[in-house]
Amino acid sequence: MYDVIVVGTGFGGMTASALLAKKGYRTLTLEAASELGGCAGKFERQSFRFQAGATLGMGFEEGGVFSKLFHELDMSPPPVHLLDTIMDVHFSERTIRYYQQKERWFEEIARQFPKDSAAIVRFFEEMFSLADAMLSFVYKRPIVPPKTIKHLFQAMQKADRKLISATPFLFQSIAKRLQHYGIRDETFIAFLNGQLVDSVQTTIERCPALLGAVALSIFHRGAFYVEGGLSNVVHTIAERYKQLGGELRMRGKVVSIRKQRHWLVTTNRKQTYEAKHVVFNGSIHSIFSILDDSIKRTFSIREEKEKKRPAWGAFTIYIGADDDLQTDSLYHQFIVDRTKPMSEGNQFLLSASAPFDRQMAPVGKRSITISTHTEPLHWWNRHAYDEQKKMLTEQILQHVNKTFPLTNIHVQLVGTPVTFSRFTHRAFGKVGGYIPNGVFSLLSTYSPQTNVEGLWLCGDTVFPGAGSLGCALSGWIVADGISASK
Hints:
CATH topology of the domain at 2-41 and 227-308 and 435-484: FAD/NAD(P)-binding domain
EC number: 1.3.8.2
Pfam families: Amino_oxidase
GO molecular function: 4,4'-diapophytoene desaturase (4,4'-diaponeurosporene-forming)
Number of helices: 15
Helix content: 25-40%
CATH superfamily of the domain at 2-41 and 227-308 and 435-484: FAD/NAD(P)-binding domain
InterPro entries: Amino_oxidase (IPR002937), CrtISO-like (IPR045892), FAD/NAD-bd_sf (IPR036188)
Domain Amine oxidase: 12-482
Mean pLDDT: 95
Largest sheet: 7 strands, mixed
């Protein structure tokens, strides 16, 4: 019998697995696919490597989440490179260069928005201050929402004066803070909407101020290019996990989680494993299909309510092409029409591999990933699927070619929510966590510790939320919680 079974090898699952193995727990990690990482995974075609999802690294700066995690695991991270430019943001009439260093970013603000620059700088300074307050709390890894009086007491202990000073902003939106500073410039607001929808899945009107503050400040703490892609971070943690004695089994999709005296986890290969704790690293959207009915009846998260919580899907184009990109930036955001929603190709992110990165592409070539948000349920109409895919691909590439003509493409593949569902086993291909629906969204987050003893959750649909940092932290919180439950 195992102490812990971890289901899924995304950032949350591998973080929990490695930390628990280091603490001496007998741990089994199960992965349904043939590749680690889930939405942070990779695949290869014709000497090109492509990243399934997010491509920009964070948390490798001194004091950052991954710096602390790798130190905790007594290991070194894969090679990373601090970026001077986070990304270029392209509008039809201009390009905004989003600098990592705060001072250079403020200079760019003065150049791009001279009329409102003083107010915009004050707005960003406020965002940085609020983010400091939030992250000083989140990085202490509290269990939120608290499940017991003990958790509540621990959370209160971890809350410092910075966080208490930020409480007046708890029920304000980013839009409210912009109104406070009198900022109405349409291009700047579209810029913010593009950043927010990529990081926290929503725009200024529905984004809580504290959540938005973290999203708008996190790159300024450190934005990194990871050699070989973010999947290399997961693979490095997995190797350390195995060195520490952890067991990892691939191509074993979990089809049942039930509880008798202990937890029983069964795979599609009809193998059943027993453990004291089970950690589910995946979207909560996907857990109900494998939970035993007796558990679902007592589970505090209700399946019908869960189905109604909105979440995005991703439409992604993977391209292997000659290195003819005439730019020194590796990341580019395109906002086609600033007055329209930031989805379905009107806003998309282009990531290119570094010219020196031979893990990603051969000499003289680049691996390129282009991604836009999309309504996932639309893609399950099989009659319209092919035409919808063709139209959106042509629409996006038409806009790309106006800025970066891709003249010699060797590989071109397209991923839709159907693709993500097939390869990452996420229900309906929903990715990136939940879409915040207003200022009270922070109060509707789910805790990594469930109300069912021994069942834990990590990943982008529980506290502290989506992204590589949030998922890794959720796994760390789970490891802490299991250790404390002895």
